[in-house]
Design goal:
alpha+beta; five-stranded antiparallel sheet
Length: 107
């Protein structure tokens, strides 16, 4: 079992910035780069989160939608564990990512 300080080292936000349609968060997940884009809700109230395995513009990505940011992040975590072709995203400690995002009120 990890302590809260050890868990925070598993995923930490290194950069965050606002774009016209989303907030972007770059994270270091125990040496694995992760970019999360949290898109503002649609007229239907859906949040969308897209994950990329690196900061490269052409890096593979996957996404999810839900009625809340936290549910969209949890759906994204579930899909990343199942998606073939994104092994670096499957290895990420998604509970640590969620905790890092909670700390900056992103979810």
């Amino acid at each position: 079992m990890t302590t809260p300080s050890e868990e925070s080292l598993q995923a930490r936000i290194t950069v965050q910035f606002r774009e016209s349609s989303n907030m972007t968060y770059e994270l270091d997940c125990a040496g694995t780069a992760l970019v999360l884009r949290v898109f503002f809700p649609t007229d239907a109230g859906e949040w969308r989160i897209v994950a990329q395995a690196s900061t490269a513009p052409d890096a593979p990505s996957t996404g999810s939608k839900a009625t809340s940011r936290v549910e969209a992040l949890r759906a994204l975590a579930r899909s990343c564990r199942e998606v073939d072709g994104l092994p670096s995203l499957a290895r990420i400690d998604w509970s640590a990512v969620e905790q890092a995002m909670v700390k900056v009120r992103a979810v």
